[in-house]
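Sample 1 of the test manifest.
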Amino acid sequence: MIGYIHSLETMGTDDGGKIRTVVFMQGCNLRCVYCHNPDSWNSAHSAELIQNSEFRIQNEGKESAHSAQRTAHNEGKESAHSAQRTAHNEGNINNNSAPATCNLQPATSKDSTPMPYALCPMPSTELAKKLIRFKPYFKNGGGVTFSGGEPLLQADFVRETVRILKENGIHVALDTACSVLNESVKALYGAVDLVIADLKFFSNEDYITHAHADIFNTVIDTLNYLNKIGKPVILRTVIVQGINDNEESILKYKEIGDRFKNIIRHEFKPFHTMGFSKYKEFGITNPLENKSALSSEVLERLVSAQKSE
Ligand code: SF4
């Protein structure tokens, strides 16, 4: 089975704990304003993935509005390379004519530095082989984490890779925005050891405003499903100044998290600006370019206030 990989990070420590190799899958159906991986958004096969994942069905009649919004974000500011990718992607979303195969070359930055796997098809067997090589580093709770982009858009590919990894005794985590819930995705959830689930916002309006996707119900359905099957979950929320950096919001997030017994912990992460250079690099408008990183002191104060309630 073929998948599309953005990149691998071989010594990650933040996604699932311990030493982990993180596989960043290419393609995402959200456009979070605080995204630090905008280079993972587009892929030559986005329309095909979105259609297969039923995301399009859930958003019938709204996709074109979202696409227009996304296009407006980038209007007039695309670099030659990202313009090529956007034209390809937006065209596919709008006319539903995804190519049968990816015929683009690996993405390169303006200085021609190769981005190793972006937009390139890779067999699950080849990816698994690469990952198994890192197994000696996975002692004491390490392993592989699939992230993105949105790995659920390639659920069957990820599940096939996970199957091989599990046969080789490797712990696997899945880091997802929970934006899709169908039979393929459920099978993937069943196959992994841990789910790192984003609870980005606590209302559908906020999801639409700040992530350009009306997926709040899908996120809640997913959390219910993961609770039902007893899957360990780390819940993750990014706190951004002017969007959700207040005690009332933190309490609402906590209220949702408290509904589910399978949640190991709820991590609140401060918004950071490390991805800003990518927006410049790829000529994408950065909606938060005037914001600074949230300090850990402010985050600590907010989360402590939440605990004291
Ligand atoms: S889901 Fe993740 S990769 Fe996709 S836009 Fe949001 S932060 Fe970025």
